[in-house]
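Researcher: Sequence recovery benchmark, item below. Answer with residues only.
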């Protein structure tokens, strides 16, 4: 299989962390692409009409996207157990959606700051996105620490990658203040070898 890949993307990182956790990195070749909302990579767009990363090309030639579909597929393929069965499944999926939603907001802020000409940037938009992240962090702190501290699941992987992305692109936001328990959980999660192996390069 082949994964359209960028080391800076938190959505891609989710997929690669899952592969590390399942011990299956050798099964998926990484194809690095430079693709932005303003300049889509042609090869990626041919496989995923939305031209978003990640996209997984399977050995039969069909492509899966987006990250949630890819992680669910790989977990199913390898019987990884990162999407628990029964009632716990909905908790894991909701936690995954929370992590993914934080990524959506944080990536949107990055695009506003890094891709749009300064005169066209909207500080109100950036702050509105941060307000969503801030609310989500408060809810993670208030209601999810026990789940985050339980057996590894896709929700933890998503939230771990989302928090690390905030550090990577929006480190000045000081998200740990007021979220001390979440910060302590993240410190432990970030020490996993899967996270160490998928650290984005600076820049
Ligand atoms: N919901 C998608 C979001 C993917 C996404 O936004 N990826 C970004 C990279 S971090 C991207 O490819 N952006 C390029 C674009 O918007 O054209 C997923 O979970 O895969």
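Model:
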């Amino acid at each position: 299989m082949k994964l359209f890949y960028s080391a800076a993307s938190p959505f891609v990182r989710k997929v690669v962390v899952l592969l590390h956790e399942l011990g299956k990195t050798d099964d998926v070749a990484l194809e690095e692409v430079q693709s932005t909302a303003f300049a889509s990579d042609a090869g990626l767009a041919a496989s995923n009409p939305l031209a978003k990363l990640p996209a997984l090309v399977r050995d039969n030639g069909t492509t899966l996207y987006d990250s949630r579909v890819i992680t669910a597929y790989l977990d199913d393929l390898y019987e990884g157990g990162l999407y628990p069965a029964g009632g716990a499944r909905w908790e894991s999926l909701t936690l995954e959606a929370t992590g993914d939603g934080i990524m959506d907001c944080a990536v949107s802020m990055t695009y506003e700051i890094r891709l749009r000409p300064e005169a066209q940037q909207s500080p109100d938009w950036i702050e509105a996105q941060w307000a969503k992240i801030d609310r989500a962090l408060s809810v993670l702190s208030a209601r999810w620490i026990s789940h985050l501290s339980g057996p590894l699941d896709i929700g933890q992987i998503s939230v771990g990658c989302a928090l690390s992305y905030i550090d990577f692109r929006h480190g000045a936001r000081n998200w740990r203040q007021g979220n001390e328990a979440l910060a302590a959980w993240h410190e432990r999660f970030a020490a996993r070898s899967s996270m160490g192996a998928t650290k984005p390069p600076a820049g």
